[in-house]
Amino acid sequence: MSNIFRELLKKIGSGVHTGENLTRQESEVATEAILRQEATPAQIGAFLIAHRIKRPTPEELAGILDAYDRLGPKIDVANLPFEKPVTVIGTPYDGRSRTVPVTPITTLILATAGVPVVMHGGDRMPTKYGIPLVEIWQKLGVDFTSLSFPQVRQLLKKTGLGFIYLPKHFPQAHDLVPYRDQIGKRPPFATAELIWSPCEGKVHLVAGFVHPPTEERFQETLPMRGINYYTTVKGLEGSCDLACSRTAIIGLGQPTDPPRFERLLLNPRDYDFSSKDVPLESTDQAIEQMRSVLQAQPCELMDAAIFNGGFYLWRCGVCEDLKTGFALAEAMLVQGKVAEKLKEISTLSSEELAVN
Predict the structure, then answer these.
(1) What number of other Cβ atoms are within 10 A of residue 118's Cβ?
(2) pLDDT at 157
(3) Is residue 175 within 8 Å of 37, Cβ to Cβ?
(4) Dist. CA 244–CA 266, nearest whole Å
(5) Which of 162, 164, 263, 305 has the lowest CB atom count within 10 Å?
(6) Is the pLDDT of residue 1 over 80?
(7) CB of 61 within 8 A of CB of 192?
(8) Which of 68, 312, 73 lies closest to 195, judged by CA?
(9) Which alpha helices (DSSP H) does 160-251 contain, by range?
(10) What is the dihedral of CA 61, 64, 70, 76, to 10 degrees?
(11) Cα–Cα distance between 142 and 160 in angstroms, integer?
């Protein structure tokens, strides 16, 4: 396999004049060789940095995701008892370091409203070593790191919330973390992970991005993969969190016949929300802000929580318009329903661990 891989490496690493893009099938073969570590460490490192410099094509991203499908965990969403499609949240695995994330609260709001959500990621990792989602969930009382894959699937079925934890559920992907550190840059796999769905069946995929060319690749890659219901967000630090400090640039992939793409520019000031994002000072500060929101206590993060929660309630089909979504998100927080959902998830996750 290392000899086959060498030819694929030569193809993408030969420079501007003689280098070539991989086909979707070649990209899948290369990715599988990397995930299985059938290529040598030198080859893997060279491939990741060469591919980073070249930039992946939509066909290559589709091939990477084909390999992820072949080797990674898959939840069959067709057998889940939900009226709404599962929303898969794709955020950078290297976490947050500048702004307090609101993603966990958004997912709790959605789950409370009957929209199932699946997240995925690992521990702190390069290049940013920011706060990962799984660590936030632990401090909120839900330890996804200890759940087996069947337990995650069961928790999703019971509560509408699940988390694929790479070290436990997809160790081949987790084993690439040292390479990320050694090359000092996010490899193309980090881009593919934003639009990876660890689910089998129709989903609503949400992906954060920073640079417009990344979103353009998403628009081509996702339909190749049969995903036409998706949302792209130029979010805080590449996450799916809408910023309060600027107009949100959002892409709406609509599963119509034929599928279409629409652009939405959403200014929080048009709806009287704060124009400030909450800076991240420490993990404890972030958790304190989230707990204040869940307890409906006045805090800096409240506007961001309502703004994001209301938008996603509308986007996921719970509400007919944005204003109704914002009002519903606020009502669920004030009435304690979101806090109750967190308590339910924490209790059931602990029960799942106790059984096994």
Answers:
(1) 24
(2) 96
(3) yes
(4) 10
(5) 263
(6) no
(7) yes
(8) 68
(9) 166-169, 171-174, 177-183, 188-194, 212-224
(10) -40
(11) 14
* Separation of alpha carbons 86 and 68, rounded Å: 19
> What's the distance, CA 48 to chain centroid?
21
Report how far residue 5's alpha carbon sits from residue 26's, in angstroms, rounded to the nearest whole number. Answer: 9
Contacts of 290 (CB under 8 A, 6+ apart): 100, 102, 104, 105, 136, 140, 301
Residue 144 in contact with residue 349, Cβ under 8 Å?
yes
Per the DSSP assignment, residues forming a β-bridge with 263 are 251
Indicate if the pLDDT at residue 16 is higher than 70. yes
Please give the pLDDT value at position 17: 72
The DSSP letter of residue 277 is: P
SS3 label, residue 356 = coil
CATH class of 2-71: mainly alpha
Phi, psi of 299 (to 5 degrees): -160, 165
* Count of all residues that appear for the chain in the document: 356
71 in helix, strand or coil? helix
Task: Tell which CATH classification among 3.60.15.10, 1.10.8.100, 2.30.42.10, 3.40.1030.10 matches the domain 77-340.
Answer: 3.40.1030.10
271 close to 247: Cβ distance less than 8 angstroms = no
